[in-house]
Design a protein that fits this description.
Length: 445
């Protein structure tokens, strides 16, 4: 499918004729809303606007929901009042939650005024939760029955249009509090008069609406169900977390982590304005510049040594690279462990001992190899000893840092995936250079 999208993007961009409805219809044929959104985001802004104007009105809302916020905002901003009015007609609570950040406040108010009382209540309840809370994104399309219902009531309900991922019916008391879930398969062959409470699956635990998206996704994964109920702090049933939502959140979390490792936001537009992109990236480049100056300062302390022993300058990248690679391996392992909730105070020390043992073993192994190569290359046994010792120390420090840095950042509520690699690289560079050049000063001068 990615190759198909690529070909369609090229077809649009390389077309020398003005984009018209026929060309768009040919390119976008058989594409779903999420694929059209990806297609639009892949076009330069001028072509994107032209292509957007050819999107059928009945598909526009779905396409906007699938687009990243930054790519969506200019399209919404350029809509005239009539088109915008048509766009917000008939929005449900979940769709408005997704689009609200891209819509002016007065337009959101108009959309709310046009909703029925039920959808408006759904929106107001969802909007009170933070963007990182599962309560904000619950699916309100689910089958609910009073807890005193019987099998015949459930069968009657199931004769209507059944939402996707419906494997359970959700029971509530008179106040709307969640009381249990009844598997639809358990209804077959049961007497019509049997109370549904007798068929409740006691193993299903509802999700708190306050739980983070990450925690909710992990709970969903372990539940092995197609949907889980979501309740507020008073036990009221707000909606459900469906398999579709869980998969979307997993994809977004992966993308966010990947982008964060470079100091970027997952909502960033591929064709964002040059000045805006430059400002964002300048911050991250500035942070890296500070760490580079710190490493340069460490090297400058041994300026005299480098002037007299040029071989040390040639071998410095080897020391830094070996420490950086070893540290990044441990760091990646730790970030995954923290993300999965595997790292606790009880297993940090055993894990630290294990990583130090691995670092020590690899450090000695590669120190011997690099020491032999350096000795032969520069015809100096002393240089081989110096770099071998520096490699051992730096890889051990890298292993130690790879364990402790993400734990410390996690305690400080800082995403280790965002800044862990920068800090680790700084530590391994500075320690590696200081140890290597320091030993060089002792043994070679």
């Amino acid at each position: 499918m990615s190759e198909d999208i690529t070909q369609r993007i090229e077809q649009l961009i390389r077309s020398e004729e003005e984009l018209d409805a026929a060309l768009y219809a040919e390119v976008a044929e058989d594409l779903e809303a999420d694929q059209v959104a990806l297609l639009l985001e892949s076009l330069p802004r001028d072509e994107r606007q032209e292509c957007w104007e050819q999107v059928p009105e009945e598909q526009r809302v779905d396409v906007l929901v699938e687009m990243r916020a930054e790519a969506r905002a200019p399209l919404v901003k350029d809509l005239d009042s009539k088109t915008l009015d048509q766009l917000i007609s008939g929005l449900d609570a979940e769709t408005l939650i997704e689009l609200a950040e891209s819509l002016p406040d007065d337009v959101v108010d108009i959309a709310l005024a046009r909703m029925d009382e039920r959808q408006r209540a759904h929106y107001e309840r969802s909007a009170q939760y933070d963007e990182d809370a599962i309560g904000r994104y619950v699916d309100h399309d689910l089958l609910i029955l009073p807890q005193n219902s019987r099998v015949r009531d459930a069968e009657r309900l199931l004769r209507r249009e059944v939402p996707e991922y419906t494997t359970h019916l959700w029971l509530v008391d008179r106040t709307g509090r969640y009381t249990g879930a009844v598997p639809t398969l358990s209804l077959f062959g049961k007497p019509d008069h049997l109370p549904l409470v007798d068929l409740i699956d006691d193993e299903i635990e509802p999700l708190s609406a306050l739980r983070s998206l990450k925690e909710a996704t992990e709970a969903f994964e372990h539940a092995e169900l197609s949907a889980l109920p979501v309740v507020d702090e008073n036990g009221l049933l707000l909606g459900r977390m469906s398999m579709r939502l869980a998969l979307e959140l997993l994809h977004e979390q992966y993308e966010a982590q990947m982008m964060a490792s470079a100091g970027l936001d997952e909502e960033e537009d591929l064709f964002a304005p040059v000045m805006r992109s430059s400002r964002r990236r300048a911050t991250w480049l500035g942070i890296n510049l500070l760490t580079a100056f710190l490493a340069s300062w460490a090297i400058g302390l041994f300026e005299g040594t480098l002037q007299q022993v040029v071989a040390l300058a040639v071998l410095m990248p080897v020391v830094a690279s070996m420490g950086g690679i070893a540290g990044s391996q441990t760091l990646t392992l730790m970030i995954r462990g923290l993300a999965l909730g595997q790292i606790t105070a009880a297993n940090v020390m055993p894990l630290l001992r294990k990583e130090l043992s691995v670092g020590g073993l690899n450090g000695v192994l590669w120190a011997v190899v690099i020491g032999i190569v350096a000795s032969w290359w520069f015809s100096s046994f002393a240089i081989g000893v110096v770099i071998a010792l520096a490699i051992v120390v730096n890889i051990a420090v890298a292993a130690l840092s790879g364990v402790l840095i993400p734990i410390l950042l996690d305690k400080l509520k800082i995403d280790p995936a965002l800044s862990g690699s920068v800090i680790l690289t700084t530590v391994t560079d500075v320690v590696g250079f200081v140890v290597f050049l320091g030993l060089g000063s002792l043994f070679l001068l």
